[in-house]
Design brief:
Elements (H helix, E strand, L loop, with lengths): L1 H9 L12 H11 L5 E5 L2 E2 L4 E3 L7 E4 L6 E4 L6 E2 L4 E4 L3 E3 L22 E2 L4 E9 L2 E10 L4 E5 L5 E2 L5 E14 L3 E11 L9 E2 L12 E7 L6 E10 L4 E13 L19 E3 L3 E5 L11 E8 L9 E7 L6 E6 L5 E8 L2 E9 L6 E7 L5 E5 L5 E3 L9 E4 L11 E9 L5 H9 L4
Antiparallel strand pairs: 1-2, 1-31, 3-21, 4-5, 6-7, 7-31, 8-20, 9-12, 10-11, 11-19, 12-18, 13-18, 14-17, 14-19, 15-16, 15-18, 21-30, 22-27, 22-31, 23-24, 23-30, 24-25, 25-26, 27-28, 28-29
Length: about 450
């Protein structure tokens, strides 16, 4: 208990050194830490021992919103990211930003000026107004004038992005209309185009409604799944002039293409002055059962709250995983692939059994919990609702509690953990429901 309390004390500030602000929720979790031998391992702005986080990244910068909810901060390897006003722990799987220069380095103001390194745009009517950083997002301002009567665009990586169809790719960009309007422009759009003997015509995301609202509030995404043999993608903004006079200035920042991903993750940045494709490792959270006072039969209760902004993609997303160091013998609370359904699963020697608890609403915080009786039964409750249970799970050899992934890193959560409480004993179904329902969001 002393070491756990020391961990709580040491981590009352978030990964950026900012003090915890969500004190009511923090107080709730800390109070439960002292009841029934339970341990609070995560709470708003807090990550406590013995739960350990690792995130492999050599020099890449990961990002998360600061406590003001409107400014991106940068984080190094293995540093927890508490996201936004709620200060929930941001957890994401491994992703690569294949755009080499999201920091917009190398731009030179002028008419036409010089586009950032590795980027290109038509010179006619173009002016590079300047560069800077808004809300932690590096940007470039580009003005277009004249009377174009044809298609013109901005290519965000001239070497194009390596891609292996039929994977799903997602591009994203922050935009702000700094002046003028899209008068006499048709089909202003953002897209990632497949490259195969020229450009394949693909669906794009319209930016016609772009306003002068803060850059951080206007992120546009485009997700593509190509069936043919596509080996490269070209991320770009596209415009079509109708021959009338145009005049608009657009701010562009946070460009990202995740060549394997059904949704956009947080911005990934290369080191300053070293533009290159950059990979953020998966956020991995784990603790040994022994350090939590849990025996090898797994008898315990784990209570979880958090938020997931989207449904699961091609991979399932594990919330809680108790295993023997493999994916063959484990007891799991997870979201099934391609859905918003929260389920419980037991695996024994590779054979599985599944029960459904309920479905979350993307972007809305929810609660869930599991109770393991040590005799192979796993019970779960979603938001305090009716318990679903599976039996026949492993009853010996369990070693590890994992949060937001599994032993093989093939079920990464992409969301936020608001709270985590572990008790080294099994609760009855009725008590499990009540404790889940009482969790703060």
């Amino acid at each position: 208990m002393a070491s756990a309390l020391l961990g709580l004390h040491q981590r009352l500030c978030d990964g950026a050194g900012q003090p915890v602000t969500n004190l009511p929720a923090l107080a709730w979790w800390k109070a439960r830490h002292q009841r029934a031998g339970g341990r609070t391992l995560a709470a708003p702005g807090l990550l406590a021992l013995p739960l350990a986080l690792s995130r492999a990244q050599v020099s890449t910068s990961s990002t998360a919103l600061g406590a003001d909810g409107v400014t991106w901060g940068e984080f190094g390897a293995d540093v927890p990211r508490f996201n936004g006003v709620a200060r929930r722990l941001l957890i994401e799987g491994q992703r690569t930003n294949s755009v080499r220069n999201p920091r917009m380095e190398g731009a030179v103001a002028g008419s036409p000026g010089t586009m950032p390194t590795h980027m290109a745009a038509a010179n006619a009517g173009r002016e590079i107004v300047g560069t800077g950083v808004e809300s932690g997002i590096p940007f470039i301002d580009v003005r277009y004038t004249g009377s174009p009567a044809d298609y013109f665009d901005m290519n965000f990586d001239t070497a194009n992005v390596v891609y292996n169809s039929p994977d799903t790719a997602t591009g994203s960009v922050y935009l702000r209309l700094m002046g003028g309007s899209f008068t006499n422009i048709s089909a202003p759009s953002f897209g990632i185009y497949g490259v195969l003997f020229g450009f394949v015509d693909n669906p794009v995301t319209s930016i016609a409604g772009l306003t002068n609202a803060p850059l951080i509030t206007q992120r546009f995404t485009a997700t593509q799944s190509f069936v043919g043999t596509i080996t490269q993608l070209s991320p770009r903004l596209s415009f079509i002039g109708d021959g009338g006079a145009i005049d608009f200035t657009i701010r562009i920042g946070g460009i990202q293409v995740e060549a394997v991903g059904a949704f956009a993750s947080s911005l990934i940045l290369p080191p300053v002055s070293a533009p290159a494709a950059s990979t953020r490792g998966a956020d991995l959270l784990s603790a040994t059962l022994a350090s939590l006072g849990i025996s090898a039969n797994g008898a315990s209760t784990v209570l979880w709250s958090g938020m997931i902004p989207h449904e699961a993609g091609a991979l399932s997303m594990d919330l809680i995983d108790v295993d023997d160091g493999t994916a063959s013998n484990r007891l799991v609370l997870y979201v099934s692939a391609g859905t918003k359904k929260v389920r419980v699963l037991r695996a024994l020697a590779g054979s599985t059994s599944v029960g459904i608890l309920g479905s979350y609403v993307p972007g809305t915080p929810f609660r869930a919990g599991i109770s393991l009786d040590g005799a192979g039964r796993l019970a779960g409750s979603f938001d305090g609702g009716t318990v679903a249970a599976v039996t026949g799970g492993p009853i010996a050899g369990l070693t590890t509690l994992r949060i937001a992934n599994n032993a093989t890193s093939t079920a990464p959560l992409s969301g936020e953990v608001g709270g985590l409480l572990v008790l080294p004993l099994a609760l009855s179904d009725a008590d499990l429901q009540a404790r889940v329902a009482a969790l703060p969001l």
